Amino acid sequence: ECHGYKVARMKCYEKSETFHYLYMKEHSVREICEEKPSDRTLFILGTPPFVTEDSYKSLFSKFGTVEQVYFHPAPCATAPSKNKSKFFVDYPEVKGYKVAYIVFENESSVHNVMNLEPDEILILYSKENSEVTGIAKWCNEYNSKLMEVEELQKDIDDFMAEYDKKEEEQVKKEKEEMEPDEEGWIKVTKKGRRPGFARKESVHNRIMKKEDEKKKKKQLLNFYRFQIRESKMNQLVKLREKFEEDKKKIALLKQSRKFRPF
Asked: Its GO biological process terms (predicted)?
């Protein structure tokens, strides 16, 4: 063990000579997440970049049935956001070394992993579950990025249909708000007869800057006793300095007025 983590050795194939070290422990956080139940979730640090969800499911299936595998760039209590569209990606795929959350069907599966023998080595790929590598992998990735025109058009049509539906619901809601209720009252909103122009970011920043300046001017000065004492002391120091300067000026004037016949 290392700092509370169970350390397990993993290698890609049976014949591989190099190892990858996985740091595992039971997932336990204060925030409750339905997708990651604390009693059935295994947290793993040091997941290599080439590991996929399917390969982890196959690897940990010998400890129990795996329901879900989540990847994150850093530890996170919530489930990762999923992309609604295949072509328009809002949440890019996690690349590089990452953390993983393995959600099992039963609690006992997590205990089985944590009770792993120190000498046991986890084999990521087997004959039944081989991974495509090299040029074949690059070709598959390239082919997967090619867009089918019909699928793309269907995705766009679905998005626009959902957008139009939301706009219709918004317009309907605004109309209902402008209608008088049972007592004859009408709810006043920011969108009246003359809603005006939408604020740009630059205009908004300028307005907020002016508001901050106004707040600074309105701040209470000399509110506390120590502030009053300090202000009085500073005022006395300034008066003394001014008095000394005036004395020097008067002395210079007196010297300049002396009568000098020679």
From this structure: ribosomal small subunit assembly; rRNA processing
